[in-house]
Amino acid sequence: MEIVYEDAEVLVFSNKGRFQTGGGLVVFDDGSYVDISTNKIENKGPGDIVIRNLPMWPPLNEIIKEHNVLPPFKSISVHGDKNNLIIRPSEDANNYISIGGTDTFVQKCTVSLVNDTLYIETPVKEDHVFIDCGAVWVNGKRLPPRDEEDFGFIEIQCGSVDELVVNSNGQGDIICLVPIIDLKANINGSTSFELLQLNNADVRILGSGNLFVSEFKGDLCACISGSGGINILTGLINNADVATNGSGDVLIGGTVKSAKLSQSGSGNMMIAHVLEQYTATACGSGSIRVLSCGEGQ
User: Fold this and answer.
1) What is the pLDDT of residue 104?
2) How far is C-alpha 239 from the chain's CA centre?
3) pLDDT mean across residues, the chain
4) Which of 6, 67, 119, 232 makes a 20 to 30 Å CA pair with 156?
């Protein structure tokens, strides 16, 4: 899938081909369309359309405090409790980093480059108290979140990322609109991921963090305890080793060559297609479903 529309509030993904935008609509050649103002999708032909709500952060140009050119790097390592990060394609050959937010957030962030890795340290909450109320909707509109005294986010512009490593005990949204080869994440809290393209993932989530991937190609190893979940739209996964314990759901819309699935609690797993073989172990009130299996399905 590719991004066919983006603004401050939403991303629209599709693999339907040619489209036009205008008047708050994304219109495809087959007559399918997306109404951005209402989040309404009408799909009239082959292909998929997906709309995702972005976190309602203030515009970066209104809160920016630092903006720097970065030397070339291959990997990004993020550690801390306030992990609001967006990685965008660079419009030229350079890499950039911008930090915006309150003075407290900016002063407590540190950025360093060691060899080929960009290290980012975000503020650590001393009281270890995090309140994540989720999105609030009134009359069909999302309300922006209340700014905390340590609110802020970081924007990186680059071409691609070989490896993204995230260790977090707090909250945040990590959005990546460039390809990532490897994701290694250890989340204890509510840090979530919105990723455009990902090859391999080794993810441990304890809490309510979520992993959303538009296109996945490679190996998936994930262990989730709590209400966090995984949503993969398309792709070909070589091997999926996924275990959940809690109320989180796992949805894989692509094809998996082989899978080892384990579920306990009230969460559900659904795999669209397994090509070769899989094992499934479930206990509790949740379920594991593989919609089709084998060649030629």
Assistant:
1) 87
2) 20
3) 88
4) 232
Strands annotated E in 64-160: 64-70, 75-82, 85-89, 95-101, 110-114, 117-121, 136-138, 141-143, 152-158
Q: Determine the Cα–Cα distance for residues 208 and 190; give it in Å rounded to an integer.
A: 5
The reported pTM is 0.85
CATH assignment of 60-293? 2.160.20.120
Instruction: Write the CB contacts of 88 (distance below 8 Å, at least 6 apart in sequence).
Output: 155, 156, 157, 177, 178
What is the rounded distance in angstroms from the CA atom of residue 239 to the CA atom of residue 223?
A: 14
Is a pLDDT exceeding 90 seen at residue 237? yes
CB-based contacts of 112, cutoff 8 Å, min separation 6: 118, 119
Q: Give the separation between CA 258 and CA 250, rounded to whole angstroms.
A: 16
Model confidence at 254: pLDDT above 80: yes
Cβ-in-10-Å burial (0-12, 13-18, 19+) of 107 comes to middle
Looking up tokens 């819309």 gives 253
17 band by pLDDT with thresholds 50, 70 and 90: confident
Give kind and range of the element (H or E) at residue 102: none
| Three-class SS state of 55 | coil
> Stretch 158-184: mean pLDDT, rounded?
94
Amino acid in position 76: I
pLDDT of residue 130: 46
Residue 195 bridge partners (DSSP): 176, 213
Percent with pLDDT over 70 in the chain: 91
SS3 (DSSP) at 42: strand
The residues that bridge with 81 in the sheet, in sequence order, are: none
On the CB side of 221, how many CA atoms lie within 13 Å of its CA? 7
H or E segment and range at residue 63: helix 60-63
Rounded to whole angstroms, the Cα distance separating 88 from 294 reads 38
In the chain, list all ranges with CATH 2.160.20.120: 60-293
